[in-house]
Design a protein that fits this description.
The complex is a heterodimer of chains A (75) and B (253).
Chain A (H helix, E strand, L loop, with lengths): L10 E4 L9 H5 L5 E7 L5 E5 L10 H5 L5 E4 L1
Antiparallel strand pairs in A: 1-4, 2-3
Chain B lengths: L2 E3 L18 H14 L6 E5 L7 H4 L3 E4 L5 H11 L4 E7 H7 L1 H9 L5 E6 L2 E2 L5 E2 L18 H4 L5 H6 L4 E8 L3 H19 L4 E7 L3 H4 L3 H15 L3 E5 L10
Parallel strand pairs in B: 2-3, 2-4, 4-5, 5-9, 8-9
Antiparallel strand pairs in B: 6-7, 8-10
Helix pairs in contact in B: 1-8, 4-5
Classes of the chains: A alpha+beta (75), B alpha/beta (253).
Bound molecules: thiamine diphosphate and iron/sulfur cluster.
């Protein structure tokens, strides 16, 4: 059977230069799709990233909890 | 796909200086979103306070007067009386509003000033390094209560939202938290009601936001966030303590 690619329902972007790696978005994501990665930004903070973008449904709960308005969401 | 979450227009596009995980950033954004929703950017004048929120004049794209420590409600009174058609609000910490500025907030509320007050209760003096505030909980460690706050010596945590609700001039008083999305949605609703209290000329609108201070609590952002539910909310219950209905809304929901 042909495998049909499923369009992700949502899209999030992280403005990494503003991220302070606090992890509140990690706690907020109901699907546990976000981690604080080992990558550093120019301020020396580990930045948050989405590990499984295809499963994001654009609920925006991560963005709601972000204290630094790092995240933008499309749905 | 269409964009469902973006930076509010009221916030200037520069980074916040707040420590990682500090709820001040969330509360700034909630206030900005509500001001956007009411289209108040051109009409708003802020009486800013002293504390970690001191840089409001950089962050909010509107006119700001920096009040001396604790005096924001008095400054807001003057601004509103001189410019009654503007929307006037303060944003103050618990050291600012509930210690050095207690007289100003109580009398502004009692005079029924048509201003809105956003009060951030993180149970501590953040900016100056974590001294006890009037809101510090019994037993809570701070640099000036290194063995925990002892009520016999240092008094009890003050409950500003309940206290102001007893005054006839207060039109709206609520306590909210932003530690999870469910509470954050209620915080947005309360913020709107406190804005409406002024727009409908009913009296002073007041919202107390429970907030973290991971740095001075000496906790990770995650642990500090959990402390809100585990320790703060049991002492500072969330809820609406006073809500004067506009005549047209009375009796509805
Ligand atoms: C007249 C005066 N007294 C003392 C200070 C020092 N001071 C600056 S901020 C602050 C307390 C701030 O704490 P809070 O209002 O709780 O705000 P936070 O920093 O926690 O957000 C104090 C005592 C001052 N700036 N002016
Ligand atoms: S000292 Fe506390 S209140 Fe101030 S920015 Fe840092 S975490 Fe926030």
């Amino acid at each position: 059977m042909p495998v049909t690619a499923i369009e992700p329902k949502g899209k999030v972007t992280f403005r990494e230069d503003r991220c302070k790696g606090c992890g509140l978005c990690v706690m907020a994501c109901p699907r546990k799709l976000i981690i604080v990665s080992s990558r550093l930004n120019n301020e020396g903070y580990h930045v948050a990233e989405l590990v499984d973008p295809d499963r994001c449904n654009g609920c925006a709960l991560c963005a709601e909890m972000c204290p630094d308005v790092v995240i933008e969401v499309w749905r | 796909m269409k964009q469902v979450f973006k930076r509010p227009d009221c916030l200037v596009d520069i980074p916040f200086h707040f420590c990682p995980g500090c709820h001040h950033g969330i509360i700034h954004r909630v206030v900005a979103e509500v001001l956007d929703e009411f289209n108040l950017r051109e009409k708003a004048i802020i009486a800013a306070s002293v504390g970690c929120s001191v840089f409001m004049y950089d962050y909010f794209d509107m006119d700001v007067i920096e009040a001396p420590h604790g005096r924001a409600a008095a400054v807001a009174t003057g601004v509103k009386r001189a410019r009654p058609d503007n929307f006037v609000f303060t944003y103050q910490g618990d050291g600012d509003l509930a210690a050095i500025g207690t007289a100003e907030i109580i009398h502004a509320a009692n005079r029924s000033e048509k201003v809105t007050v956003f009060f951030v209760n993180n149970t501590i003096y953040g900016m100056t390094g974590g001294q006890m505030a009037p809101t510090t909980m019994i037993g809570q460690l701070s640099t000036t209560t290194p063995r925990g706050r002892d009520p016999q010596e240092a008094g009890h945590p003050i409950h500003m939202a309940e206290l102001l609700a007893t005054l006839a001039g207060t039109a709206y008083s609520a306590r909210v938290a932003v530690n999870n999305v469910k509470n954050l949605m209620k915080a947005k609703k309360a913020t709107k009601q406190a804005v409406r209290a002024q727009l409908d000329k009913k009296g002073l609108g007041f919202v107390e936001y429970l907030s973290t201070c991971p740095t001075n609590w000496k906790m990770t952002p995650e642990k500090a966030n959990r402390r809100i539910a585990e320790e703060l909310i049991p002492i500072f219950p969330l809820g609406v303590f006073k809500e004067e209905q506009a005549p047209a809304e009375a009796g509805v929901g």
